[in-house]
Design brief:
Length: about 90
Amino acid sequence: MTRRTIACLLAVVALALLGCSRGPALKTLTVDEVAALVAAHDGKTFFYDDNPKDVFAVGHVPGAKWLDEDRVTAADLPADKGAKLVFYCASEL
């Protein structure tokens, strides 16, 4: 996926890194920060797409998992409570 595709997909980004409940506040990421996390393949960062399923099917961040926002369960998330979770969606400009 090209940088341009990622930038378009994430045009209006709602990205957050989630930690434990005592962890830091939510953080907005830039496209470059997301690209660096994708490229790192660290096994500790997980990407979740909150777009409609048809939008996800057209294109998404490499390795991202689609989430049905009405049916998210703990089983959809990694067991590692120290993992970085990146959630994103796009909107029309």
